[in-house]
Amino acid sequence: MKQFISVYDVITSNNGNINNAINQLVNEALTYKSNPLKDNTLGNHLRLGMLFLNPSLRTRLSTQVAAANLGMETIVFNVDKEGWALEFEEGAIMSGNTVEHIKDAAPILGSYFDILAIRTFPSLKNRADDYSELYIQQFIKYAGVPVISLESATLHPLQSLTDIITIQENRLHKAATVHKKPKVVLTWAPHVKALPQCVANSFAQWVNAWGEADFVITHPEDYALDEQFTKGATITHNQAEALKDADYVYVKNWSTYNDYGKVYENDPAWMLTNETLALTNNAKVLHCLPVRRNVELSDEILDGPNSLITTEAGNRVWAAQAVLANIIKTMK
Ligand code: CP
């Protein structure tokens, strides 16, 4: 694996068969979960630079733990709080607020670090800019070292890999159903703020590429996602219909894609409760966190027996460790 920006970066490690490549990566992650230090010298004398243009709890700490398990050194830089304001536009006349061009900063970062990991959220103001992934693409272009996305403008691949790991791990625990194609539902949920589409886009991209689920996406009419990520899924605006017989329900808010970055409605009826969960096949519930309790997801679900959410957050370590290990092996 040369970089980790989207699901398609896993293909390089498995002769072009994406389903096999995802399953292999999931198995590697679960092997690390059962034996975290099995490759504890693989990353010796290698340095990971983690750049945050936006806040994080899980992504930051789980990736640091993963790197430590592989014997790597990690340096974290909160670019948004401690760095110069970066310019990303080619040919920009830098007479405004930006102080340093990515063309100048990225090669220097590439000389300090063996791998760069970057979190850069979308503006939610200009869809064309956000969906061109300008910021992370400029890092890739100018850094000269492998780049890992810690969540970019449109995708969150470490989260999505974790989500597949968590579903697969749960299926393996229920040996009787492991051969049945699970029904996986991604449901929109209410929120008070305009949130990126990254987690939903990325989950859809990974589940579609994985190809081992009967995949349904449900959202209010105005919340359609970009078809490049959802193609292959069944899409319905009827949440109850979507939830029927579901085995896994992924709950997430996102803002509008078409009239970009807006909150059109916050109908609390879309929040998953025990009553709506009763429509499912006793489904397990996932959410990437952080979550607004009793807005996006109810206490009774979050604290109830069907939640896989804490396990899912814990699995972030093993996803990051499998990705780092694959990139290090490609570098060697
Ligand atoms: N799920 C997730 O990416 O969490 P953080 O924003 O805390 O990293």
Describe this entry's structure for a reader.
Helix 11 (274-277) links the parallel strand 10 and strand 11. 39% of the residues lie in helices and 14% in strands. Helix 4 (102-112) packs across helix 6 (134-143) and helix 7 crosses helix 8 (198-210). The protein has 332 residues and is an alpha/beta fold. Bound molecules: phosphoric acid mono(formamide)ester (CP). Carbamoyl phosphate binds at residues 56-59, 84, 119, 156-159, 288-289, 316. Catalyzes the transfer of the carbamoyl group from carbamoyl phosphate to the delta-amino group of N(2)-succinyl-L-ornithine to produce N(2)-succinyl-L-citrulline. Is essential for arginine biosynthesis.
Labels describing this entry:
alpha/beta; binds phosphoric acid mono(formamide)ester; five-stranded parallel beta sheet; four-stranded parallel beta sheet; 39% helix; 332 residues
